[in-house]
Each structure stands twice: as C-alpha cells, then as structure tokens.
Amino acid sequence: MSLGLIGRKIGMMRIFTDAGVSIPVTVVDVSSNRVAQLKTLEQDGYTAVQLAYGSKRASRVVKAQAGHFAAASIEAASSLVEFRVDTVKLAELQVGAAVSAEIFAPGQKVDVSGVTQGKGFSGAIKRHHFSSQRASHGNSISHNAPGSIGMAQDPGRVFPGKRMAGQLGNVNRTTQNLEVVRVDAERGLLLIKGAVPGSKGGQLLVKPAVKAKA
To answer: Which of 64, 74, 122, 177 is the most buried (most CB within 10 A)?
Structure first.
C-alpha cells in the first residue's frame, strides 16, 4: 500500500559518478501526474488514489470521462491508474493536485512495470531458451528444431503446457528492486539504474519496491 507514479519510457543513457564509474540508467518521464480521485473507506470500501497521466484530445474523450475529469478540474488524461494507500497518505493529497517525482529519492528501490516488446511468433529455442543442436555440416536444417514433443502409444498425446513455439513478448512484466539513481523534479524525470520492460515511449508504473530490505 504505497503511492507510485505513471511514467513514459524515454530511453537509456549512462551517467558517471564522481569516481568515474559508468552507470547505465533508464530515463522515465513522470511529469504531469495529477490526482483525479480519492477513494475513501466510507464511500468506496477501500482507500486509494487515482492518478491521471498524459493528455488526450477533447474529441477523443467520451462524455463519462469528460465529466470525471471536469469534477476533478484537471486536463483530460490518456491514462488512469489507482494506487492503494493508507488513510494517512490519503489525507495528505487533494483532488486536482500535482504529484511530483520527489516522492522518490535517490538510492530508493523501486519496482517498474510495463508491457514487454513483442517478438511475434517465435520458435521454441528462442522462446524458452532451449539448447540448439550443432550447426555443423550434415545437420541439415534441424539444428534449431525443438526435438520430440509426444509420447509412445501410451499415453500417446502431448501434455498440456508443453513448451513449444508461439507468441513471444507483449505481456505485462515487472522488474523488481531497481535503484533510483537521480531525481530531476524540475523536468519530472527519474533516472533508474538498469533496464525496464517495454519500448521507448511505452507506459510504465513506478512503485516503491515490495521486497526492498529495510
């Protein structure tokens, strides 16, 4: 139960420490996060903060969403995400208020969620990291073959869940315990050490790590 931010993946770069050590970081734009709704225990049965991110043309906003944004006196957003919080944190927030990148601090551990890059229909070797055969002379075109998949006459079928070729990527994934290296509150940027799921321009959710050591 902690507040996070909605962001957009800008890309990767590297920064240098005072000792000259190169650190690969992912730049995440978390600007324009604003509170769209506060959900209370009395009215909704649970406590949560609904954040809005991005912008959307008025012609693309349906009437129900337009009324929702108008009630909060905020610009129409492209994304709405809820974060479960406790009553103490809920009391600190107001509808329509902006949420800054400064809720995170350098050195803090975070979990970053996003949709991974889609790889399309892929073979079993690439999809499940199987070991291929030797691609030497005489092995024809079977060096990347997945091998046998079935049984003998008994039971004579392929069991459900058999790892075979199929769709790879384009799924929700979370990378845990990444470190926030730098917070640029003025430009609304987070510099997070390492890689995060998704392509450039993809939407991300940045939340405090659930498995961070105290």
So the answer is: 74
Residue identified by tokens 């190169």 is 22
**In the 3-class helix/strand/coil scheme, how is the chain assigned residue by residue?**
CCCCEEEEEEEEEEEECCCCCEEEEEEEECCCCEEEEEECHHHHCCCEEEEEECCCCHHHCCHHHHHHHHHHCCCCCCEEEEEECCHHHHHCCCCCCECCHHHCCCCCEEEEEEECCCCEEECHHHHHCCCCCCCCCCCCCCCCCCCCCCCCCCCCCCCCCCCCCEEECCCEEEEEEEEEEEEECCCCEEEEECCCCCCCCCEEEEEECCCCCC
Nearest to 21 by CA among 209, 213, 208, 193: 193
The distance between the two most distant Cα atoms of the chain, rounded to a whole number of Å, is: 73
